[in-house]
């Protein structure tokens, strides 16, 4: 397939490094998300893939062919922007057919109609963009990009202008369309939920570098840096000391408690580390005399009942404030001031360099 490969890509704007020695392999036909906070270098990376920006160093290849020096129109790459960039004076159909007609493709109109079918907008083909809703305009922009049958479709925060409800709906549709057309999608977003729901592979960017890359569930379950642990959902990170290594288990001390961690779930196996545990992976129990393994004591500081779940803040002994999410199944809830024990399955914890 036509894999997209970025090797050692760096982009400097005078003495500022926006993208720093990036290595990415994006398999043909995959839905790939570049996820990161504003300013981390996502758009700059997309612009280099599109040929709108020249890298300071490194190379880009597509299907084994070096395209680093190729101009944007020589690349089989199309971009969908957040602001859609539709032609206001043209009908929806003409907007979609425009690129094909310019290249004198013979059945341009028929292909444009098929693309509008794909995004379920055939019935609005005669309208002008201004007569459509934001979500519909976004789908026209998508049809216009897909109709050119690029090898790679770049999407830069394409749902950023939509309200939350429509955004969630479009995420499902966009994913469905990608599966149908089988094109490689490189989707840029700062919305972690969007990246996790849509992508096969997510690369988490920070300060121009990829911190971690992998399938959504793997990134969530086993973050390898504090940045990834905090950017993808919430994490409790507790300082710990490795006291011994026994087979594939690390023995730890966390604020005077003896705990364990699977060695392969830790990036660092000696000295002072951080133990991470997601709020929903913590069990909260009354603080009884018989202490559970892998647990720490605490006092409930705050309980927020949200219906299906309750979010607690617990002052954990020697650790500080820890967040706990519990599903409400009709059992007793804890209240401010309750003395509790927080316990977890060591298979759910992860270890990071301290
Ligand atoms: P993102 O899309 O992740 O928000 P960008 O790739 O747009 O981030 O920008 C990354 C960094 O590079 C930002 O600090 C931005 O200000 C800077 N930058 C982007 N384009 C230019 C440019 N043409 N000249 C100078 N700095 C730029
Ligand atoms: Mg951007």
TrEMBL record:
Enzyme Commission designation: 7.6.2.11
Top-rank lineage group of the source organism: Bacteria
Reactions accelerated catalytically: ATP + H2O + polyamine-[polyamine-binding protein]Side 1 = ADP + phosphate + polyamineSide 2 + [polyamine-binding protein]Side 1
GO MF, one example: ATP binding
Gene3D superfamilies from the UniProt entry: 2.40.50.100, P-loop containing nucleotide triphosphate hydrolases
UniProt xrefs under PROSITE patterns: ABC_TRANSPORTER_1, ABC_TRANSPORTER_2
Keyword tags: ATP-binding, Cell membrane, Membrane, Nucleotide-binding, Translocase, Transport
InterPro entries: AAA+_ATPase, ABC_SmlMolc_Importer, ABC_transporter-like_ATP-bd, ABC_transporter-like_CS, Mo/tungstate-bd_C_term_dom, P-loop_NTPase, PotA-like, Transp-assoc_OB_typ2
Keyword Repeat in record: no
Enzyme class: translocase
Domain annotation ABC transporter: ranges: 4-232
Alphabetical list of Pfam families matching this protein: ABC_tran, TOBE_2
Function as written in the Swiss-Prot or TrEMBL entry: Part of the ABC transporter complex PotABCD involved in spermidine/putrescine import. Responsible for energy coupling to the transport system.
Family the entry assigns: Belongs to the ABC transporter superfamily. Spermidine/putrescine importer (TC 3.A.1.11.1) family.
PANTHER family with a match to the protein in the record: SPERMIDINE/PUTRESCINE IMPORT ATP-BINDING PROTEIN POTA, SPERMIDINE_PUTRESCINE IMPORT ATP-BINDING PROTEIN POTA
Subunit structure: The complex is composed of two ATP-binding proteins (PotA), two transmembrane proteins (PotB and PotC) and a solute-binding protein (PotD).
Name recorded for this polypeptide: Spermidine/putrescine import ATP-binding protein PotA
Native organism: Arthrobacter gallicola
Lineage summary: Bacteria, Bacillati, Actinomycetota, Actinomycetes, Micrococcales
